[in-house]
Design brief:
Blueprint (H helix, E strand, L loop, with lengths): L1 H35 L2 H4 L2 H5 L4 H9 L3 E12 L7 H4 L2 H7 L8 E15 L3 E4 L1 H4 L4 E5 L5 E10 L4 E6 L21 E6 L7 E13 L11 E5 L11 E3 L5 E8 L8 E5 H14 L5 E2 L2 E5 L12 E6 L4 H5 L6 E5 L2 E2 L3 H11 L5 E7 L2 E7 L2 E2 H6 L1
Antiparallel strand pairs: 1-2, 1-4, 2-3, 3-6, 4-5, 5-6, 7-8, 7-10, 8-9, 9-12, 10-11, 11-12, 13-20, 14-15, 15-16, 16-17, 16-18, 18-19
């Protein structure tokens, strides 16, 4: 009898514990379940953060002003088969080898494509010079499918910039211009254009670096400090805009690095382009200041006594540098009061001084510091002279 009562009590206790545990679990579930099924957390992340990114807003603002530029030019060529023309004009030579009489030079049409961006409502389009150089016809395609003829107003090969005017009644959509001087490394960068003929292609990246000198990229025929970006820039993107996060044009896409280092894109700062555009519209050409010197970096062990600067290796006779007293062997250590570390900084100082402006230089001449005052001249005129 005593055993039965003990077993009964134990069973009752177990039942009580089990019931309590069940109640606890139920209460816990009741507390947790409403939180897990809360309507606020059940919404997708896109609904909370917004379905459209800042990129979409930027493209809505600038996209209608991004255009496709199709070009055509006629090329004449004589089918000489690689043989000298003098031999082909010799009838005995042609008869001996059975070569027929050469006819008129053949003609073929070369077609190209690039991108551009409309800057003014009257149809002023900014693009790259290499897109419209030596072409016979320009056709501009808009985002809405409209296609109109274009006329090249002017181009500048040194900065790879050109201006095209749309032939037709406006107003045309316009892209807002930003301030490229305000860019910082790490800012968003949005490249828009028509790579490989794929209209209205948008790629996203960041500003990877600023003030990349074109000469350090192996481009010796351009005078540019470029914006570097990892936003994809491909053939056909040339002349299209590089936008900031607000949809403002901060650069003009100009080239992409191929081979080693592929994936690096470069754009011309829009603040640099503004001055060139003004000159091209006004006169059809751009002037570039020049002082007439050849510069090199300071080499270790050169015996100059300085560790940085720009070494003058040649001076153009009767040029601005020669008239200002600059000599071969001088080391330019300061320009306009700012320390010079390499030749590119001298070139930038000359560019900022402008044609007819004043350029103050400090040079190390065999250990003595000499201050000089130069007046830059027009590069085109100096080269003609």
């Amino acid at each position: 009898m005593r055993s039965s009562r003990v077993l009964a009590a134990a069973a009752a206790g177990l039942a009580t514990v089990t019931a309590a545990a069940t109640a606890t679990v139920t209460a816990t579930t009741a507390l947790v379940s409403p939180t897990l099924t809360s309507p606020g957390l059940a919404k997708p992340a896109a609904a909370v953060l917004g379905r459209q990114s800042f990129v979409a807003a930027a493209i809505r603002r600038a996209g209608p002003a991004v255009v496709t530029i199709d070009t055509e030019r006629t090329v004449q060529s004589a089918a000489t088969g690689g043989l000298p023309r003098g031999l082909l004009n010799d009838p005995l030579f042609r008869q001996f080898f059975g070569i027929p009489q050469q006819g008129a030079p053949s003609r073929r049409t070369e077609r190209g494509q690039g991108s551009g961006v409309i800057l003014q409502a009257d149809g002023l389009v900014l693009t790259n010079a290499h897109v419209v150089d030596q072409i016979d016809r320009v056709t501009v395609g808009l985002e809405n499918g409209q296609r109109v003829e274009g006329r090249v107003v002017g181009l500048d090969k040194l900065t790879d910039l050109a201006v095209v005017r749309l032939v037709g009644a406006g107003p045309w959509p316009v892209a807002p211009l930003g301030n490229s001087d305000a860019l910082q490394v790490g800012d968003w960068a949005i490249a828009v254009g028509n790579p490989f003929g794929l209209d209205n292609t948008v790629t996203l990246g960041i500003i990877s670096s600023l003030n990349r000198n074109a000469s350090k990229l192996g481009i010796t025929d351009k005078r540019l400090d470029l914006i570097q970006t990892d936003a994809a820039i491909n053939p056909g993107n040339s002349g299209g805009p590089l936008l900031n996060a607000d949809g403002e044009v901060v650069g003009i896409n100009t080239l992409v690095r191929s081979g080693p280092g592929a994936g690096l894109g470069f754009a011309i700062p829009i603040n640099r382009a503004r001055g060139i555009v003004s000159q091209l519209v006004a006169t059809g050409r751009a002037t570039h200041p020049m002082i007439g010197v050849g510069l090199d970096e300071v080499r270790a062990g050169s015996g100059s006594g300085v560790s940085q600067g720009a070494v003058v290796v040649s001076v153009q006779p009767n040029g601005p540098a020669a008239r200002g007293g600059l000599r071969t062997g001088d080391v330019i250590v300061a320009a306009q009061g700012a320390v010079v570390k390499d030749p590119s900084q001298v070139i930038n100082a000359v560019e900022r001084a402008g044609v007819g402006g004043t350029l103050n230089l400090t040079v190390n001449r065999q250990g003595a510091m000499v201050n000089l005052r130069l007046i830059p001249g027009d590069m085109a005129l100096l080269r003609q002279g």
